[in-house]
Amino acid sequence: MRIDQQTKGLIKYILWDLIAAAISWALFFLFRKYIETEHFSLELVFNDQKFYIGILGIPVFWVLLYSIFDKYKDIYRFSRFATIKRTFWLSLLGSSIITFVLLGDDFVLRYISTFKLFSVLFIIHFTITTLIRTIVLTNFKKKIKTGIVGFKTLIIGGNNNSLKLYEELTTMPYKLGYNFVGFIDTNGKSKNELNKYLEKLGNINDIAKIIKQYEIEEVIIAVESSEHSKVNKIINILFDFEDNILIKIIPDMYHILLGNVKMNHVYGAVLLEIDRELMPKWERRLKRIFDFSVSVIAMILLIPVYFYIIIRIKLSSPGPIFYHQERIGQKGRPFQIIKFRSMVVGAEKEGPQLSHENDDRVTKWGAVMRKYRLDELPQFWNVILGEMSLVGPRPERKYFIDKIALKAPHYKRLLNVRPGITSWGQVKYGYASNVEEMLQRMKFDLLYLENMSISLDFKILFYTVLVLVKGKGK
After folding, report:
1. Are 460 and 421 contacting, i.e. CB atoms less than 8 angstroms apart?
2. In the beta sheet, which residues pair with residue 338?
């Protein structure tokens, strides 16, 4: 379903966005001509070259804006209410750009204020786009309810919960988009009541293989109350896959009382959708723009500092200026981290080792650099390349990741984001000298993942500067 229906639906959705933007611009241009001539005239509109430039360019502008800040993914799962809210804010943003940037010197501003011109453009665009999007999404919902469109769904659970869930989802007055392909048994018993309806495809250890084999698009975790300890293991396996797998879980009363359960259907099983989007799309884009801009400016302004550090490194000990080391980045992709060399050449002849206090491998100048974290300055280049961010969990080597994962498998969640030059764990805990300290620092980095935002990044950067000024790095 995903390749055919989703692609067709996405193309249809984008085409209607283009049509909505074109209609909105045409109506706005007609209003603009009315203000200029005090009467409606299609002839004046069609004779104006700006109309044709706008009718071709403005819709493209809107689609580009949506592609950056809106969602063009999983169209059939869109909530109409959430879509209207996003359309409202993006209509405000786009109308502001068009009015104050593209129409800043428009002739019609002699007859009407800029604010009124903006208000008319916003109202027309928001109304037309919302109306068309609602109609399109309602049509998509109808295809799901009638069973024309569905998602390959896998149930992971024990006996009673999974059976009740299946019966509840399949006895609805209309379809909810679940095309069940089978279930994963988590209780290890030879008999499972769900066998009456679905094929048992394996156990927890077979999850990854089954998802690939059956091209699963949605997973529902329906464990028994006594099996909650297995949820973490299941989610860690599922998080290794790309974002295109939707994960839902049967919540307990604790989740409901916390207000974490959001209903997608008035009629339907109560399911908690695990949101894998750590930051909204617009905030991720803004974070990347901020990272890139600050890194470019920092590398230019710090050129004298770089030269001074390079001279001190050359005078302190023989060897190269920079130290390259393979680290694991976002989605488990390896990259070469760049640092100013702070240790003697051949410091790891006996294998991977973490630095510690009074480490005799660290040069005298290296100790100074590490105290003020000057050895990290070349990593602005890693940020520019997109391998790192200014703020994010510190990247580790695969050797240590494997050791940490044995004690804390959820560590791999940190690989869902770009690693950073600095991190909450780095500020609160500092450098780690062993695996146990890495586990302690990991707690702060996991908290960062749960609270990611631009404002938190600014806060961490502020405290990082304090650490640098006070020389509290270790």
Report:
1. no
2. 324
Task: Tell me the one-letter amino acid at 324.
Answer: H
- For residues 30 and 45, the answer to whether their CB atoms sit within 8 Å is yes
Pick from 180-184, 300-304, 453-457 the range whose average pLDDT is largest.
Answer: 300-304
Q: Which residues pair with 154 in a beta bridge?
A: 182, 219
φ/ψ (deg, to 5) at 353: -140, 145
Residue by residue, DSSP assigns 392-432 as SPPP--HHHHHHHHHH-GGGGGGGGS--EEE-HHHHHT---
Q: Are strands 151-157 and 178-185 parallel, antiparallel or unpaired?
A: parallel
Write out the DSSP string of 27-61: HHHHHHHHHHHSS--HHHHHT-HHHHHHHHHHHHH
Return the amino acid letter for 434.
N
Query: Using CA atoms, how far apart are residues 155 and 249, in angstroms rounded to an integer?
Result: 10
Check residue 243 and report its DSSP letter: T
Quick check: pTM over 0.90? no
Summary mean pLDDT of the chain:
84
Mean pLDDT in residue range 234-249: 76
Cα–Cα dist 117/228, whole Å: 57
Domains of the chain: 2-145 (no CATH), 151-273 (3.40.50.720), 281-346+357-470 (no CATH)
- On whether the CB atoms of residues 236 and 208 are closer than 8 A, the answer is no
Taking residues 401-427, report their average pLDDT.
87
Half-sphere exposure of 131 (CA within 13 A, CB side): 11
For tokens 């002699």, name the residue.
110
Helix spans in 263-418 (H): 281-301, 303-316, 364-372, 379-384, 398-407
Q: What's the rounded Cα separation, in Å, for the pair 91 and 306? A: 45
Report the SS3 class of residue 219: strand
Sign of CA dihedral 190, 194, 199, 201: negative
420 with 390: CB under 8 angstroms?
A: yes
